[in-house]
Design brief:
Helix content: 40-55%
Radius of gyration: 19 Å
Number of domains: 2
Structural class: alpha/beta
Number of helices: 12
Strand content: 15-25%
Order of helices and strands: EEEHEHHEHEHHHEEHHEHEHH
CATH class of the largest domain: Alpha Beta
Length: about 300
């Protein structure tokens, strides 16, 4: 059963959402709020021909778990935000965290949902931010991180650029090397900037340095090192946006010997936890244009983890 809800009702940025509920009669059910990756995204987290959040929602609801998904703020209000006078001060706080917490409050205030069993499922950058969202007011029963990273966003973006260089022809490689060197220089300068400087300098396209500086000042490692609640970390072995070596294994290193953390690695799956076809950054558009579904093993593992907690 799907219900239309509004995240941030009465605020400057109300967002459409869908609360999907299982048919469980009068019994209170566990619930999950879905948090998108980087960039503007609709409630299904539509990426070309694929809708991973819709897949996740349909499966979890079939297992007796309620799911709340919603349009990302930049998807609905992106053009408006770009025109605002304080756009240079926008961070992941306004882009993602505030709305995730507002969505969580909807779940916890719904009499049909067990307020003590509300979880966050963050994908990609949403996974990176999930521990911070939890600490800043989410107060979840547990955290699911799909294709996240404990590294800084700037390091991830540089790594993706460097991976792409190795997949290009000679001429394009020369151009890409120069462009990447320029981006690296800009990113390296961020740490030495004052807040005021970071809010006056653009580091990448229309993105101000402040966006990266603020996020780098709240590293995922700081939240993860003290977390005691259940955490489930999932990674696709063929993911070309975050990697097993640089990201999944780093999570393992940071969270070594923590009994509250579970790790799952899936052979042959990409960043969307779908079957990988091309497996390279260079051909990501071809890969994501192939309509596929989130792997059933991934969905089943998430449902079992939630239901046993």
């Amino acid at each position: 059963m799907d219900e239309i809800v509004t995240i941030g009702k009465g605020t400057q940025y109300p967002l459409d959402g869908i609360l999907s509920l299982p048919e469980n009669g009068s019994e209170k059910v566990p619930a999950v709020v879905l948090v998108h990756g980087s960039g503007p995204s609709d409630k299904d987290e539509t990426i070309m021909a694929n809708k991973p959040f819709r897949d996740v929602s349909e499966y979890l609801v079939s297992r007796g778990i309620a799911v709340l998904r919603y349009d990302k703020r930049t998807f609905v209000y992106g053009k408006q935000i770009l025109k605002e006078t304080d756009y240079n001060k926008i961070t992941v706080e306004q882009e993602t965290i505030e709305d995730a917490i507002l969505a969580t409050e909807i779940l916890k205030n719904d009499a049909r949902i067990d307020a003590n069993k509300v979880y966050i499922l963050g994908h990609s950058m949403g996974g990176m931010l999930a521990p911070r969202i939890d600490a800043e007011g989410g107060n979840f029963a547990g955290i699911i991180i799909l294709a996240g990273s404990p590294r800084n966003l700037t390091d991830i973006m540089l790594g993706q650029s460097e991976d792409l260089i190795g997949q290009l022809g000679k001429l394009l490689r020369i151009i890409a090397v120069r462009q990447t060197a320029g981006i690296k220089k800009k990113f390296e300068a961020i740490a030495g900037m004052t807040d005021e400087q970071a809010q006056s300098i653009k580091s990448l396209g229309k993105i101000y340095a402040w966006y990266f500086k603020e996020m780098n000042e709240h590293p995922a490692t700081g939240y993860l090192s003290v977390i005691k609640k259940p955490v489930l970390i999932l990674q696709g072995e063929k993911d070309f946006q975050v990697s097993v070596e640089k990201d999944f294994n780093l999570y393992k290193q940071i969270l070594a010997n923590k009994p509250n953390v579970t790790f799952k690695l899936y052979t042959g799956l990409n960043h969307l936890f779908m079957k990988s076809v091309y497996g390279t950054v260079k051909e990501y558009k071809k890969e994501y244009k192939i309509p596929t579904k989130v792997d059933t093993n991934v969905l089943s593992d998430m449902a079992q983890w939630i239901l046993k907690e």
